[in-house]
Design brief:
Largest sheet: 12 strands, mixed
CATH topology of one domain: Transposase Inhibitor Protein From Tn5, Chain A, domain 1
Oligomer: single chain
Shape: globular
Order of helices and strands: HHHHHEEEEHEHEEEHEEEEHHHHHH
Radius of gyration: 23 Å
Distance between the termini: 16 Å
Strand content: 15-25%
Number of helices: 14
CATH class of one domain: Alpha Beta
Length: 450
Amino acid sequence: MESDWAWTEAAGARVGSPLRVATLAGVLQALLVNTGRSWSAALGARLRQAGGDLVRRAGLSVAELLAGHFRATAARCSKHALVLVSGDTSGLNFSGLRAVSGLGSLGNKSGARGLWAHSAIALTAAGEPLGVLDLRLWSRVGARAPKDERPYAQRESYKWEQSLQAVQQRLPPGTAAVVITDRESDIFEYFLAPRRAGVDLVVRAAWPRNGRSGEEGPWQTVLALAANATPLASVQVLVPRTATRAARQATLVVRAAQVRVKSPRKWPARRRCALPLSVVAASESEPPAGVAPLSWILLTTLPVPDAAGAVTVLRYYQRRWRVETQHETLKREGLRVERLQMHSVAALKRAIALYYVVAWRAMDLCLAAREQPEQPADERFGADELTVLAVLAGGEVTTLGQAVALIAKLGGWEGYRSSPPYGPKTVQRGLLKFQAMVDYHRLRGEARGP
């Protein structure tokens, strides 16, 4: 039997038969523990044929394939009064698949070909990943009319509203949500999209939209309104590391205002309106020498009556980086999804969708173990896995922090007080060895019989 987590994420997938659900669970587990290997090598002789048939299955949509994971994510969300949903778009480079038709432009000067992926990942208010709530994959093929000549529903930017509607459909009733997105989603139509009660938006502003405070104030840009607002608080934030910068602490001065934001001037008179929003501005007061200061202007449908409300919105926005971590895990932290070799775009999309689930699992283990180490280990590990962990530890393993630290050590983490934190790649390497131990333990049990 595959690990319990994989069965949980596979159950409910609309793939046609219970046997295919079992195959899906096996593929998820194999991809997680065989990180760094090709699709074929990861699946091995036992799953290679069935896994290939699954992703090549005609007519199977990504939503049907991930239906079980969406349901499991919703169940995890139901345990929280409020969840955050972080959305982002990333290009996936498959230029090496020259014989595969249907790949499109990635919008850069190199002429790279591939797919675009838009995902929405659910988080607790503390930032713990709960799973993917929406995933869209497409290619930019052929010439397109200029954006202004296409209806809104035919533009690529419509993905933000489509994803929002899908997230709302999959969220459990009674769970409030704040959907957090970056500058690309600063689209007036997105703010007007239907939202159910308890669902709000936080969007990083990209455009100098006109707005005003109250009904009588002068019209000026939202950026000016935010900059002129009274400072409310000073907060410390951790700026995560990227490929081009180190992690650092930044001190931000926070301002906020209640505004009415005017619709675009090019809209016909019958559509024009002024939308009530809150604007929260956060600017770095003393950046390090030679470093550009942080400056965030956030538009939100949440009320921001005071300093505490403004800081809360800022903290929500900080959690948006989790979806960037997801894409980093997907592309580089061992999973290397851009090395996938498939014979069709349809099969490629389905395989990528499975890697999104695996990337969530790797993030979940790492972040939860590092940030909430006292969580019970049996919430993420089954009985056989806990037995093997107890052998490794020389005693019972009761917390998630203990469990993942042991696995990370199998992956090469030294575990000293001075050691840097382990990451998804280290945990994935450890899982490869750990799974072999669990499989051996199960084989011994089967050989002994009941």
